[in-house]
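Field: COMPLEX_INPUT
Field: COMPONENT_COUNT = four
Field: RESIDUE_TOTAL = 408
Field: MODE = joint
Values follow.
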Amino acid sequence: MLGSPIRDRQAERRSDTRAEILEAAWVIAREKGLAELTLREVGARIGMRAPSLYSYFDSKNAIYDAMFAQAWSGCLAAFDDLEKRLPRTPRAELKKMARAFFDYAVADLARHQLMNQRTISGFVPSTEAYAPAVGVLERVRSHFVRCGVDRADHFDLYIALVGGLIDAQQANDPGGSRWSALLDQAIDMFADHVGLPESRRKST
Amino acid sequence: MLGSPIRDRQAERRSDTRAEILEAAWVIAREKGLAELTLREVGARIGMRAPSLYSYFDSKNAIYDAMFAQAWSGCLAAFDDLEKRLPRTPRAELKKMARAFFDYAVADLARHQLMNQRTISGFVPSTEAYAPAVGVLERVRSHFVRCGVDRADHFDLYIALVGGLIDAQQANDPGGSRWSALLDQAIDMFADHVGLPESRRKST
DNA sequence: TCGGACTGCCTAACATGATTAGATCATCGC
DNA sequence: GCGATGATCTAATCATGTTAGGCAGTCCGA
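Field: COMPLEX_OUTPUT
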């Protein structure tokens, strides 16, 4: 009995290969666009034929689903990380959170499309894949409550505002900063609207 | 010489068929989704085989392009119509315009996707098809200037705000009114931000 | 009125892509 | 060593956009 290394090497290899497939898929998605991803090419990149991928994922959409989960998990992780060093004033908090989300979305077009837009025809994320997205939303919401912004409609308004800025940036000035530069102003506008204190000199 | 009816019957028939194709395409897009549109089915609806459509449109994307043009032309028409009976106060004007655009977008999901989202993989609207969209934007912009809101960043902010509300509505509560109900509040917030007068009782 | 050109549509065929079925080869526990 | 299991392959199916080439009716000029 040499120790008890009950490592399931088989399962490990399997999960490694899954990860490899997803990584290849991300690379292709970034290079050619999310919708241009083909199983043949994913296979080619990792030295496999397309049908072999079906031992690892039930379908192409299952791959998208796993990518969706990864994307939102990454976002959730970024938020958890962020919470450690959030500023103290409510207004600054809102800005920091908005900025974090904005930057995460804008940093990777393919990822953003997958996370926030219905750009893939038949794809609908599974509930499990959706879980981290809900997590992010919950985190933001709880911060809002802590800041005293507890009305549901205000929260919805904030969501729409930040989302609108992101979409406008990606759609009309990808790679630029035309709407990115408006984010702070927008949050100030929102903060004023909901009556948050702290009088940053209004640079309207 | 019986009168001079130089009607080009041939061209008429041709253009009628084009219209018929587009109409069938819209029906399918609304029924099954914009991306689920197939040439075979478009053909079937008008009693043709798929390849025959190529005498009328260069490609499937050309059909999308024509639909894109129709959608924005309709929007432009709605705006021109609207201008006749716009309210007099700046704030009310902004609201009316936002509402018009919001309702137009929300009324037809397929149309909205085509107009405002990159939901079709390889499709990029041609400059000609894009023209009415530019027209709409110009109309809104000129109203802004007339209202005294002339800073470019404020205009961009408005675009992002209205777009964000539309997207949020369609994505998270299609058919409902959760974000629709926020539109007036959002425009009030914006109007306050840019310093527009008229003191509607702040129902924050 | 006749013949050629053009119009409008069709069938056949191709390329690509997801997906399934079945065969093959390696590996691992006994 | 041997059978089961796992990993991968090839071949085939089906849907879709698109191209090539054919055929019938129509129209226009001689």
